[in-house]
Structures are given as structure tokens and as C-alpha cells.
Amino acid sequence: MEIFIAEFETANTRSYGYGTTPEDAVEALAERWSNDYSPQTGANRELVANYRDSIYVYEVELGRGYVLGLTDTFARRIVATGDDERFNAIFDNPSPKL
Predict the structure, then answer these.
(1) CB burial readout 68-90, b (16+ within 10 A) else e
(2) What pLDDT digit, counting tens, does each position of 24-44 carry?
(3) What span, in angstroms and rounded, lies between the C-alpha atoms of 10 and 51?
(4) In terms of Cα–Cα distance, which of 30, 24, 34 is closest to 8?
(5) Rounded to an integer, what distance in angstroms lies between the CA atom of residue 83 and that of residue 94?
(6) Cα separation of 45 and 60, whole Å?
(7) Whose CA is closest to 15, among 2, 1, 41?
(8) Do residues 76 and 56 touch, judged by C-beta distance below 8 A?
(9) 66-82 pLDDT, tens per residue?
(10) Closest Cα to residue 15, out of 3, 28, 2?
(11) DSSP states of 26-51 as a string?
(12) Can you give the pTM of this predicted structure?
């Protein structure tokens, strides 16, 4: 079974969203940041949307290990970045939750 992981990194945090599609993973990441993390910490609610090109979406297979290092032979595969047009509905027309 394959799942998708959306990753967003700042100087102080590394945030993730998980989903069965790239869109689900990015939406989970954006909602968690906007609705949970930023209200509790005072972080900018729009930071993920403003820097959406810094979101990386990976496809991973359950039960398989991945190694990041000098070579990416065994690394997870990047399938999209947050500025991909398929995510426009998440960031350009956010739901009331975002």
C-alpha cells in the first residue's frame, strides 16, 4: 500500500501531513498548521500557504525502508511540490477551516 507524505520545514519546525493521495497529504498539513499549531504557538497561520513551494510531497510504500544520505538510491520519491496546480483549491480558495 502506498501513502503520501507532505513535508514543510522552517528554521524551527518540520511539519508533516499524511494521506492516501497527494492532495489529502497537503490538505492535512495545511489544516494542522493553520488550525492547531499556529493558534497555540503564535506562528503565522498563512506561512504554509505563503511558502507552499517549500512543501515536498513524497510517495512511500508501507513496509519499505528509506535512507537519505550521500546518494538517494534508497530515498523516497518526490511526486510534487506545494506549488503544483493540483493544490490550488487548498491554498487559493481555502475552506473556512484554513
Answers:
(1) eeeeeeeebeeebebebeebeeb
(2) 999 999 999 988 898 889 888
(3) 10
(4) 30
(5) 15
(6) 28
(7) 41
(8) no
(9) 877 656 666 677 889 88
(10) 28
(11) HHHHHHIIIIIIHHHH---TTHHHHT
(12) 0.81
